[in-house]
Design brief:
425 residues, mainly beta
């Protein structure tokens, strides 16, 4: 190959200097671009799981960059801690994780460092174990809202904590203030923050307090409430709340019922949250009730289908690509993992051997914690149960939903062991 002649050599042109007024912005853009090049992909896709059922209240994480397989064959458990007896799940924000447990005649609110499980703060309050046909302890999950954490106890004590320090900003015996009874198994629903309001599953169709000071804004009549958390209907002021006998759509501002669907179970226990999607609402309960899909209208919702192909005793199902994935049946008797068609309610497949304890979903994968403490990843597909990987993470019985946040999965046993599994790329 001939060397280039002078005529073919590239001409060097001296760069023009930017004016001083443009130099600083240009350098800032360059710096941001350079930083972005070195930021791990996992950080760009991190998501705080700051409330029960996650940011979208559907049990599904939007995170995509996490490992569902581990080449070494050994699950990377970053740390474990003991938080005492209970069923509370974990919520995560700003590198802090929060949960509840019961220790020595007290319930305890924990805040720990996500990196190593180190205790940042805890708050204890007197509470009986209250083991009624189950192990007892707290059954509700904290709710994070900015720099505040809200906790509702089984007996109706409502707390507002400073998220960083654990300082109690206010507390109120909300069951007494609302003049409603405590349900048979105690309050179990997580508070829902909507603007300046805190929505609670209390009484026949809920109650609302001012999130800044705990003052009661409105309360529904004294009936036994359900155990599912409040769910808003998008683009409306309607919140769906359960009682022991119904699901009711309530106006957030006034507390006035807009409609009510009679929904009876063997023990007055409605514990699974509704799924609201594309103008439709899915309801499901265990205790011999079953499931139904309704069309949301200006008046009472219209039934599309109902059957007993899914019975969610404790945990709500997950909707992914036109299919429902849920824990079907009585947990004590041995529930199964079931997939239904959203539009028809028909069973697509059912897996009888996994003995599921808790279920979530991310990146098209089911995140299953079995009753025996195994963490299982499987493809969320109507083609059938397709396991990707499985490993033991906890001892004891596990009936709590596993939570994925910032590439870590948080698992919890009823006896109080919490394990953080680091699945970051």
């Amino acid at each position: 190959m001939k060397p280039p002649t002078p005529a073919t050599l590239p001409t060097f042109v001296a760069p023009k200097m930017l004016p001083p007024a443009m130099l600083a912005p240009a350098m800032l853009v360059l710096g941001v671009c350079m930083i972005a090049c070195f930021v791990p992909a996992t950080l760009l896709h991190a998501e705080d799981w700051y409330r029960w059922r996650g940011p979208e209240l559907n049990g599904i994480s939007s995170e995509t960059h996490w490992q569902s397989e581990w080449p070494s064959g050994k699950l990377p458990i970053a740390w474990t801690i003991d938080v005492g007896t209970g069923f509370s799940s974990v919520v995560v924000q700003d590198n802090r994780a929060y949960t509840l447990g019961h220790v020595d005649d007290h319930s305890v609110v924990y805040c720990v460092d996500v990196s190593d499980g180190r205790l940042i703060w805890k708050h204890t309050y007197p509470a009986p174990l209250d083991a009624r046909d189950f192990e007892g302890g707290p059954t509700t999950t904290p709710t994070i809202d900015g720099d505040r954490v809200y906790v509702l106890s089984r007996a109706g004590e409502l707390f507002c904590f400073d998220a960083a320090s654990g300082e109690v900003h206010w507390q109120k015996q909300i069951a007494d203030a609302a003049e409603v009874r405590v349900p048979g198994w105690g309050f179990a629903a997580a508070p829902l923050v909507v603007g300046d309001k805190l929505v609670l599953t209390l009484g026949e169709s809920g109650a609302v307090v001012n999130k800044h000071d705990g003052e009661l804004i409105w309360a529904s009549p004294d009936r036994e409430c359900g155990y599912a958390s409040p769910v808003p209907i998008p683009n409306t002021t309607t919140i769906v709340l359960p009682s022991g006998r119904s699901f009711t759509g309530v106006d957030l501002e006034t507390g006035q019922p807009q409609w009510s669907l009679r929904w009876l179970t063997s023990f007055g226990c409605n514990a699974a949250e509704p799924i609201i999607h594309d103008g439709k609402m899915f309801l499901c309960s265990g205790y011999n009730r079953g499931a139904a899909l309704f069309k949301l209208t200006d008046g009472e919702p219209e039934l599309i289908w109902k059957n007993k192909n899914m019975l969610n005793q404790l945990h709500g199902s997950l909707l992914h690509d036109g299919h429902l994935y849920g824990i079907d049946g009585d947990m004590e008797a041995g529930a199964r993992l079931t997939c239904l068609n959203w539009e028809t309610g028909d069973v697509v497949w059912s897996e009888d051997d996994s003995k599921p304890g808790g279920l979530s979903l991310a990146d098209g994968k089911l995140i299953l914690l079995t009753e025996a403490g195994e963490l299982v990843f499987a493809a969320a597909t109507p083609a059938g149960f397709s396991e990707i990987s499985r490993a033991k993470v906890l001892d004891g019985k596990c009936w709590t939903v596993p939570v994925l946040s910032s590439g870590r999965v948080f698992c919890r046993s009823i006896q109080g062991q919490v394990a953080c599994v680091d699945l970051r790329d």
